[in-house]
Amino acid sequence: MMQKTIFVYVTTPNIDEALSIGRDLVKDHLVACVNIIDGVRSIYRWKDKIEDEKETVLVMKTVENNIDAVTKKIKSMHSYDCPCVVSMDIVGGNNDFLKWVGEETSLNK
Q1: How far does CA 51 lie from the centroid of its chain?
Q2: CA 65 – CA 22 distance, rounded (Å)
Q3: Cα separation, 37 vs 106, whole angstroms
Q4: Pair 57, 96: CB distance under 8 Å
Q5: When comparing pLDDT for 59 and 109, which is higher?
Q6: Domains recognised in the chain with CATH numbers
Q7: 3-class DSSP state for residue 60?
Q8: N-term to C-term CA, the chain
Q9: What pLDDT, in 10s, does the model give residues 56-88?
Q10: pLDDT-based confidence at 107, cuts 50/70/90?
């Protein structure tokens, strides 16, 4: 049976950090692929101050069993004190693609 496929959403302060994190996660077979979206604008409260910053988003595809390792790796590489790392179930889609995600992320086992 195929493992559950997951999206992982992460924000970083810049494209260089996003590229570094994304490449390492793919290299280590923790995620199958990473989409990087540069130039998003994030408004949030941090330490009682409203922040308005340019950030870079990573959208990654992996399997449920890798979430803890992916989160740990991101936190070890990330420059933020409390990086946004959230995961969401993928409930459907192209089965060939979902199978590929599972194959790519099982190579590190």
Answers
A1: 22
A2: 18
A3: 26
A4: no
A5: 59
A6: 5-105 (3.30.70.120)
A7: strand
A8: 16
A9: 999 999 999 999 999 999 999 999 999 999 999
A10: low
